[in-house]
Amino acid sequence: MPKKDGGKKDGGKPGGGRKKRKAPAPEPALRDLLRVPEGERIDLAAYDAGATPAGPADKTAGLAATTALGPRLAELQERLYAASTAGDRRRLLLVLQGMDTSGKGGTVKHVIGLFNPSGCRIHAFKAPTREERNHPFLWRVVRALPQAGEIGIFDRSHYEDVLVARVRELVPRRLLGRRYGQINRFEKSLAEDGVTVVKVFLHLSYEEQRARLLARLDNPEKHWKFDPGDIEERMLWPAYQQAYELVLERCSTDEAPWYLVPADHKWYRNWAISKLLLEHLEELDPRYPPGDFDVKEYRARLLAT
After folding, report:
1. SS3 of 286, please?
2. Residue 200: burial class (beta carbons within 10 Å; 0-12, 13-18, 19+)
3. Which of 24, 128, 258, 302 suits 8 as a labelling partner, its CA being 20 to 30 A distant?
């Protein structure tokens, strides 16, 4: 019979011969994977619009994973709003930018649908009105900002004033060049005032945009979504890509970084933006405020009625 050694092997060390299991390395935050490097030149052609970095295995898993994030997102939203009733000024602003059909509206429908709509402030920016053109370009943006405790969503944003304005040459280049700095200072002031700015560029491929536009033309129920001007804008694709590269290079800052989300797969887009929002809200970690009354007293009074 083998001699008992008290469980000691390899020189008498307890547990000798057995390798200790290393704790699994924590998964990197999606925000770190998708964040655009600050101040670096960006070549959008180097980013795969069909990629799914850190995402679920496939569409089925992606849809399930996005749905699973819903309860936690709703809870954090409620806590954010509840905290505002006690004077917490924090709020979150999601900025969505991308080429036509990249999914800005789809994000509002599928991702923001996970929240309580009464706590959201959604604004879709169109061409400036006559009144808006009579003010500095950030004037209309300030008016659309979320209030304390709210989640704001911009479908397009102040970045149109350095995107369309550049491509269409709507303002002199000397004025256009100043706007990047104005935007950075504006977003820094928002951060200092308690606004968490989450800027997402929906990176769509040229081929996928064609497919989505064709789908609108081939389905009579989607004709209302098609604008003949979309074809003209598509002809300017290279100029828009350059304009976006400048935006991502000049306006990704510590206070308000840009996140590049591959958008060829709608399910991945929705999951990724939901995950980004969850990471930012969890970092905020809003708390329910304590009651300013004697709970026992009022419970007793209620039971007596």
Report:
1. coil
2. buried
3. 24
DSSP 241: H
**Listed residue (93, 107, 50, 105) closest to 224, CA to CA:** 105
Distances (CA, A) of 257 to 134, 143, 239: 30, 22, 23
Q: Sorting pLDDT into bands at 50, 70 and 90, what band is 20?
A: low
The whole-chain average pLDDT of the chain stands at 92
Tens-digit pLDDT profile for residues 229-271: 999 999 999 999 999 999 999 999 999 999 999 999 999 999 9
Q: What is the DSSP letter of 186?
A: H
- Return phi, psi of residue 226, to 5°: -95, 135
How far, in Å, CA of 76 to CA of 274, rounded?
Answer: 12
Residue 129 neighbours by CB distance under 10 Å: 9
123, containing H or E segment:
strand 120-124
Q: Is the dihedral of CA 133, 134, 135, 140 positive or negative?
A: negative
Q: Report DSSP state, residue 44.
A: G
Q: 3-state SS of the chain: helix, strand, coil percent to 5?
A: 50, 10, 40
Alpha-carbon distance 228 to 232, whole Å? 7
- Structure confidence at residue 5 as a pLDDT band (50, 70, 90): very low
The pLDDT confidence band at residue 4, using thresholds 50, 70 and 90, is very low
List the alpha helices (DSSP H) in 219-287: 229-234, 237-250, 266-284
Quote the longest CA-to-CA distance of the chain: 97
Element (H, E) at 71: helix 59-84
| Residue 33, burial from CB neighbour count under 10 angstroms (0-12, 13-18, 19+) | middle
123-142 pLDDT per residue, tens: 999 999 999 999 999 999 99
SS3 89: coil
